[in-house]
Write a structure and sequence with these properties.
244 residues, alpha+beta, ten-stranded antiparallel beta sheet, elongated
Length: 244
Amino acid sequence: MGIRKKKKRGSHVASVRHNTNDLCLSARGCPKRHPSPQLPSPVTCLSQASLKKVMKEIKKTNELLLDLALGDDRPLHETYQKIFDGLLNIQVAITRHSDETTVGIITLAGYDFVVVQEGSNYVILPYHQIKTINPYDQFTEPYHPPKFTHAPSCLREDLIYHFGKTVSSSPQLIHLFFRMRLDILLLKYVDTQIRVRILEKEVEGTLSHVNKDGIVLNLKCDQLNIPFDQISFIILNSSIHKCI
């Protein structure tokens, strides 16, 4: 009876490894691995339309919570901008620090002022004169901010290549991109008749000059310089006022 030689285990493993490596040493090389499709699992049972609406409401709620959290640190004009953006085209009652109240429809929320339509007149109220704001009606409609999606192609091109020149020549674009400041708005009404409330008195005259600190009114026999911080409100007749 012959003696059967026992194969060494290590040599067999080496042979298997060698044969496995030989698969990638052919002339064609290793086959390319095709990516397998990655299908995400649904995160909700809502339809796309319902999910989009819910996400929009969540975003608005988060913005409101952020405003409340940062309310003490936020500048006054930014706070009023947010408030009046949500009250555009809505009737409100605004009480000034003099405890007088203006009731009308919000037509424009500027950088440092708000325009309220009160009957046949338009009242310009600087933010620093406002004490309280209350909706006059029980129900309010949501405000939809302006969208710049239907601008002519030539205007889009001017904004890309000549942004400063194009925007500075249009009050509408200034307000859209940066919000209109009170001194810029009043430039439209130079040489027109306006009424201005200064502390406890009201004066009427022709607006002759506007600068960053105040305005100059031509009265019947005099000229009056009025700083912006002394103006309680400005009244414009509907025949001369045009909203941005």
